[in-house]
Amino acid sequence: MAGVKMPQQAALSRGWFGQLATAIFIALSALAAYEMRYTPAAPGWSENFNKIVDAMHYPEKPDLTIRSQYTGITSLDYGLQFLVAAFLPGAAGFFPEMQLLQAYFLLSFFAIISIYSVEAGRIGAKGSWIY
Fold this sequence. Notes:
Elements: H1 15-37, H2 41-55, H3 74-92, H4 96-120
Helix pairs in contact: 2-3, 3-4
C-alpha cells in the first residue's frame, strides 16, 4: 500500500462535562461495589437467598411456590431457580421498590443487547463470538 495516504482519525474532545460524567460514573460504581460487598447487610443476603431457593417459596408469599423443573437438566434447573427467585418479586409485584429496581436493570441491560445486536450484524464480526 505504498503511496496510499490513510486518513487521520479526528480526536474527540469531550471537555469538562465528559470528565465529570466519567468521574461520577466511577464514583457511583465504586459505591455500589462497596455497598454490595462490604456493608453489614451484604453477607446475609446470599444466605437468605439460598434459603428461599431451598424452601421453594418466599416468606412474603408462602402460597406461591418456585418451580423446581424447567428444562429437565438438574444442574441447569437449579441455576434457573435462582434467576426466578431473583426476578419473581419484581414481576409478581411483591414490593413497588422491587418493580422499580427490575425496570432499571432491564432498561440498563437493553443498551448492551442493542449494541451487541448491531455489532453482530457487521461484516467484520463474522467468525467472532458475537456473530
